[in-house]
Amino acid sequence: MTTAPAKAGWRFRQPSVIPGFGLTLGFSLAYLTLIILIPLSGLIWRSAALGWADFWAIATDRRTINALEISFGTAFIAAAVNVVFGTIVAWVLVRYNFPGRRIVDAMVDLPFALPTAVAGIALTTLYAPNGWVGSLLSPLGIKVAYTPLGIVIALIFIGLPFVVRTVQPIMEEIDKEVEEVAATLGANRFQIISRVLLPGLAPAIVTGFALAFARGVGEYGSVIFIAGNLPYKSEIAPLLIVIRLEEYNYEAATAIAAIMLALSFVMLLVINLVQTWSRKRYG
Questions:
Q1: Beta strand residue intervals within the chain, DSSP E
Q2: What is the mean pLDDT of residues 147-175?
Q3: Percentage of the chain with pLDDT > 70?
Q4: Domains identified in the chain and CATH numbers
């Protein structure tokens, strides 16, 4: 008499021929706890010592709100711009061979290697009213340096590689024959891009946007030189935290940092949900 096979129950991990799961998992959890969880827990604990009334007073202070709006708003705009132009740069590097292509490819990584303070000084020199670019824009009534526009340009500079290097490998996996087949079936250029290429690139584009946005929110070195750091106009949240620390107001500094942490977590969670949805839909 045959017996029915036993139903497979829930398992913590799938069977694998690769040994060392317990050791590597324990090391990973310990490392993440020491490097990420403990510092963040200390930040939350220090801000919680304020009490709800004091914390709410700092969170609703007009200067704090304005600094957060500038930091998150400029980071979002810069990341959105990088999604468009970063995808175009990745397309050019993947689809075309031209003289100096390797040099252009290497220049994309320049913001990774360049110290952020150097980038900020260079951008300020260019876009100041008496700079090479700023002197051309001033007669048109366009002021870049010491305005939120200057912050956006600085964040575009440091965030571009995140989009390009995220989209480029995925784009290399898409064969040119796919575009040629779509063209032979009567698709125009816009249809090829919107219906053939973008669905496959969507998860990578969302990932690049998330990385560029996260980098921009916490950027400090390349921004303080070109921002002007004027309260209520071009003051970013990381700078406000430094100011509170210099005033020995550690509670206010940790409160602002905790607010930035919570807002960043919510926005990245939304981005990850969109990314998961796009992967399920487009593969």
A1: none
A2: 91
A3: 92
A4: 72-236 (1.10.3720.10)
